[in-house]
Each structure stands twice: as structure tokens, then as C-alpha cells.
């Protein structure tokens, strides 16, 4: 069983024509784009997005990406894309679920792992910057988890 995150967000996506491949299903690489869209919304919701990270002097490259395709999405299909933050103290680990908005059927799931890297030194940090941890703790408090 996958670990559930305390902080999560859902966004709707309607599959556009340009995401379809020659088999008339969403090309597998576009799911990564859907993950990025919902991840940005999650970070905005937490109150510490990529702009904040860069202002603090860090970039957060994806160092691991895992996807599991269950069923393909199709042109104009309404999707629900969910992201849940499951780790933040030492790295950002986010779980994703892409499901059919109409039926709730699972189509794809995945996970990304990101690490903080100092812009100034290009060195990887072994713990998350305090500003990220504080933003997550504040978001947990706002939602009644702390």
C-alpha cells in the first residue's frame, strides 16, 4: 500500500488533442506534464512554490520519477489529477493519481522525488531548507493536523 500524504490537492484536466498519440490515447510522456501541473498547485497551496525556493537560493531537481500505467486516457476525457505530499524533511516526495473524473477509475499513478540544491554552490542538501519545513508545518496547522 502506498503512503498517504497529509497535504493534497486535485486539479481537473481535459485531455487536449495535442496530447494524443497515433493510438488515440494520451502519449505516456504527457502524464509527467500532468504531474508537474498538479505539483505546482500543491506547492502554491502549501505556500512555498518554485519562485519561493529560488528566492531562498535553492532549486529542486527531480531525481527520481516512477509511473505505473493502468489504463489509457483519451481525447477530451475529463481527468482528476491528485498530488499528495508524503515527505518533506529531507526531500520532497509526492505521490500522484490520475483518474477518470466521471467514473473515478484509476488510470495512472506515480511518485516524484526532488532534492534541494544550493544555487550558489551547486551542492545537494541532506535536509530540506527551514523555509520549506516551516511552510509545510504551517499548512498542516491550517488544516488541523498539528
Automatic annotation (TrEMBL):
One GO MF term, please? Answer: fatty acyl-CoA hydrolase activity
Its recorded name reads Acyl-CoA thioesterase YbgC
Which family does the similarity line name? Belongs to the 4-hydroxybenzoyl-CoA thioesterase family.
> Which key words are in the record?
Hydrolase
Task: Enumerate the PANTHER family for this protein.
Answer: 4-HYDROXYBENZOYL-COA THIOESTERASE FAMILY MEMBER (PTHR31793), NOVEL THIOESTERASE SUPERFAMILY DOMAIN AND SAPOSIN A-TYPE DOMAIN CONTAINING PROTEIN (0610012H03RIK) (PTHR31793:SF27)
High-level lineage: Bacteria, Pseudomonadati, Pseudomonadota, Betaproteobacteria, Burkholderiales
- A Pfam cross-reference name: 4HBT_2
InterPro entries from the UniProt entry: 4-hydroxybenzoyl-CoA_TE, HotDog_dom_sf
Amino acid at each position: 500500500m502506498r503512503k498517504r500524504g497529509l497535504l493534497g490537492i486535485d486539479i481537473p484536466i481535459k485531455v487536449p488533442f495535442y496530447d494524443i498519440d497515433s493510438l488515440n490515447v494520451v502519449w505516456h510522456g504527457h502524464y509527467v506534464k500532468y504531474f508537474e501541473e498538479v505539483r505546482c498547485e500543491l506547492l502554491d497551496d502549501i505556500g512555498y512554490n518554485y519562485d519561493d525556493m529560488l528566492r531562498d537560493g535553492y532549486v529542486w531537481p527531480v531525481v527520481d520519477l516512477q509511473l505505473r500505467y493502468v489504463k489509457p486516457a483519451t481525447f477530451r476525457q475529463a481527468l482528476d489529477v491528485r498530488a499528495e505530499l508524503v515527505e518533506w524533511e529531507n526531500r520532497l516526495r509526492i505521490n500522484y493519481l490520475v483518474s477518470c473524473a466521471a467514473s473515478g477509475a484509476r488510470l495512472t499513478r506515480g511518485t516524484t522525488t526532488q532534492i534541494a540544491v544550493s544555487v550558489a554552490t551547486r551542492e545537494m542538501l541532506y535536509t530540506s531548507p527551514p523555509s520549506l519545513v516551516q511552510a509545510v508545518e504551517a499548512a498542516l496547522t491550517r488544516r488541523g493536523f498539528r
